C-alpha cells in the first residue's frame, strides 16, 4: 500500500488463488484487512516469477517459519542488483538465524543489498494511512537510503540505521514481551505491572542484542522501544491478544487456532530460550514465558516467580560491550 502510494507498480504475490482474484477484482483483502480498499496500483499474482522478475525492489513479508521456502522460490527470478527489503519479525526455527542471514543464503545478491524494515507498524493502521515512523537497517547506507526513498510518505516516516543485528533482534524479541503484556493484562494486573514488564523486557532485549553484537542505542529507537510500546499495549497485536487468551486458561493450540494468523512470539520464545543459553544471557521473562507456553506452567505462578527472583542492581546483568 505504501509503495503503491509512492507510484510503484506493485505486484503482490500470494499462494492463495482466491485471495489473488479478490485483490484484483475488488481491491479488498477481507480476511486480513476487512473494510479496507487497497490502492489501484497493487496487482496480485500467484505466480512468483511474475511478481519478482525485473523488480527494482522485492519486499519479503513472509512469516519467519516460511521465509527460507519463499526466498528459495523467488531466488532464480531475482538479479544481483535487486534491492531486498524484509519486514519479518522472528528467527529461523532450528538454526536460530536472523532473517537477513536466511535471505543472504538463499538469494543471489550481495549482503549489502539486504535491508530490514521494522518499528511500530500494525498493518491495519498503515493501510489506513495513519501516521507512524519506522526504521530501515542495512550494512550499506546506500541500500538503506534506497529503501527509505521507496517507502517514505507523508504518513509513513522512515529513518535509517546501520545496525541490522539490533533492529532484527529488537523486532523479534519484542513479540515475547508483548505475549507477556497480554498475559499481564489478562491476569488483571494494573498499568504498573505492564510498564514494569515492558521496561524489564527492554532490558532483556538489550542484553541479548548486545551479546549478539548490536548497538545498545538501537533498543531505545523505533525497532526497540517504539515497537515494544505498540505491540505490548495495542489490542491490534496478535501477540498481545494471544497472551491475554492464555491468561484465560485456553491451551496454546486453541489460542493459535483462534488467531488464524501468525503469532511470531511463540516460536521466538523457543528460539530466544536457546539463544540465551548460547550467548550466556540472563532472560528471566523469556524463561517464564517458555515454561508457560511449553511446560504447562500457570501464568500466575510465572508472575510470582518473576517477582520473587533474587534482589538485584537494576543494570546488573547488562555486561559492558
Ligand atoms: N501484521 C502486521 O501488522 C505486521 C507484521 N509483521 C511481520 O510480518 C510477518 C508476516 O506477518 P503477517 O503478514 O501479519 O502474518 P499473517 O499470519 O497475517 O499472514 C501470513 C501469510 O503468509 C502465508 N504463508 C504462510 N506460510 C507460507 C508459505 N510457506 N508460502 C506462502 N505463503 C505463506 C499465510 O497463508 C498468510 O496469508 C511476521 O514476521 C510479522 O511479525 C511486521 C510488521 C507488522
Ligand atoms: O509487529 C507488529 C507491529 O509493529 C505486529 O505485531 P503482532 O504480530 O503482535 O500483531
UniProtKB/TrEMBL annotation:
Gene3D superfamilies: N-(1-d-carboxylethyl)-l-norvaline Dehydrogenase, domain 2 (1.10.1040.10), NAD(P)-binding Rossmann-like Domain (3.40.50.720). Its EC number is 1.1.1.94. NAD(+) binds at residues 123, 238. One of its GO terms (cellular component) is cytosol. SUPFAM superfamilies: 6-phosphogluconate dehydrogenase C-terminal domain-like, NAD(P)-binding Rossmann-fold domains. InterPro entries: 6-PGluconate_DH-like_C_sf, 6PGD_dom2, G3P_DH_NAD-dep, G3P_DH_NAD-dep_C, G3P_DH_NAD-dep_N, NAD(P)-bd_dom_sf. Pathway: Membrane lipid metabolism; glycerophospholipid metabolism. The active site is at 174 (proton acceptor). Sn-glycerol 3-phosphate binds at residues 89, 119, 121, 174, 227, 237-239. GO terms for biological process: carbohydrate metabolic process; glycerol-3-phosphate biosynthetic process; glycerol-3-phosphate catabolic process; glycerophospholipid metabolic process; phospholipid biosynthetic process. The keyword NAD applies. Substrate binds at residues 89, 238-239. One of its GO terms (molecular function) is glycerol-3-phosphate dehydrogenase (NAD+) activity. It holds the Pfam family NAD_Gly3P_dh_C. It catalyses: sn-glycerol 3-phosphate + NADP(+) = dihydroxyacetone phosphate + NADPH + H(+); sn-glycerol 3-phosphate + NAD(+) = dihydroxyacetone phosphate + NADH + H(+). It is found in: Cytoplasm. It comes from the Bacteria. Residues 1-143 form the Glycerol-3-phosphate dehydrogenase NAD-dependent N-terminal domain. NADPH binds at residues 15, 89, 123, 238, 262, 264. Keywords: Cytoplasm, Lipid biosynthesis, Lipid metabolism, NAD, NADP, Nucleotide-binding, Oxidoreductase, Phospholipid biosynthesis, Phospholipid metabolism, Signal. Catalyzes the reduction of the glycolytic intermediate dihydroxyacetone phosphate (DHAP) to sn-glycerol 3-phosphate (G3P), the key precursor for phospholipid synthesis. Belongs to the NAD-dependent glycerol-3-phosphate dehydrogenase family. PANTHER family: GLYCEROL-3-PHOSPHATE DEHYDROGENASE, GLYCEROL-3-PHOSPHATE DEHYDROGENASE [NAD(+)] 2, CHLOROPLASTIC. This is Glycerol-3-phosphate dehydrogenase [NAD(P)+]. It comes from Paenibacillus methanolicus. The lineage of its organism: Bacteria, Bacillati, Bacillota, Bacilli, Bacillales. The gene is gpsA.
